[in-house]
Structures are given as structure tokens and as C-alpha cells.
Amino acid sequence: MPPPSPLAIASSSVQRLLKEETTYRTELESQEKRLRKLENDSGEDDGNREFQIKQENQAIKETKAVFEPLRQKVEDAVRSLEQLLSSGDNTELDEKEVETAKGLISKAKASDR
Fold it and tell me: How far apart are CA 16 and CA 10, in angstroms?
């Protein structure tokens, strides 16, 4: 089996970063849901509720801090992928890899929020 091409490596890098971003967004939604539940739960107050709210707020803050550097990594990986597509002789590139790369670039630009 031949080694993966630079285009395939760059494409998988973008794909991995987009998946990582999706995972962090899902985690943030989950944390915010838990926080709302804690804040709205006026049942038993065993003294631990305020601590849990504080901890959840801290976790949310830390998760949000991940997005800016991660977005920069995605942008850098997309830029690298675009350079691979535009430079050199495209006739040597596998058509399937080119289509995959273009799809990932579109997906990355669409998720840019």
C-alpha cells in the first residue's frame, strides 16, 4: 500500500479538526444544559448547589476558550489544503482526493462562525 499523498494527509487533518470542533460544541451545549438545570432546580439545597454551579461555569469558560485557537488551526489547515490544490500539477492528484479536499474546504468555511 503506497503512503498517503500530501493532499490526503492535509484533508484528514482538516477533517479531524472539524470533528474536534463539533465535539467541543456538543460538549458546550451539554454543559450549558446542565448549568440551566442546576440554576432552575430549586429543590433541596444541600449547600453543594452553589459549588456545582461555580464548577459548571468554570467548565463552560474553559470550553469556550478552546474555540478561538481551534478555529485558527482549522483556518491554517484549510489554507494549507488550498495551497496544495492550487500549486503544482493537478493532473497528478487523485480525482477522489481532490473532490474530498474541496468538500472539506467548503464544510470548514461553512462552519466558520
Answer: 10
